[in-house]
Design brief:
Length: about 180
Amino acid sequence: MRHHSQGIFRCIALVCLFAGLAGCAVMDKSECAHANWHEIGKVDGLAGNPMFSVREKACAKHGLGADQSSYERGVQAGLSGFCTAASGRIHGAKGGTYRRGLCPAATESDFLAGYAPAYEKFKFQKKIRELQSQISEKEQLLGQELGKSGKPDVEGLRQEIKRLKKELQTEMYLRILD
């Protein structure tokens, strides 16, 4: 059973990676001319990123149309793979955003059960990295000021570093309480 779960998890991760890359590409004339709109919709659905209007506009620039109903059926098929707790964890851990109502009502709570804690962890880690970066920058400035002759502005930098370290401690303490 464990081996089966790992296989499914890997498959979802690979599909999300592929879907994310595919979603970034603008469709060229050849892709529009030979598009399988159901499969394109499925890939976009698996990525949690339906974007028919963007694709339709890209093809219209080449004088080609798009099959919205086929695309939408594909999106629904793709969302069945995206709207799971495992996919929610992956999406949240990457910092992906989620628009309520994208997943069908029957699966949205499962998706959110995985997504919400992973996304909160992503935001926390991002905030910690930002604070650590600011502390590092201020410590570098402090080192530069200490190396100057004359009257360096050391006290102001020390206070700013102290404030940032306190903010970092507070963030970490609040995370422990969660």
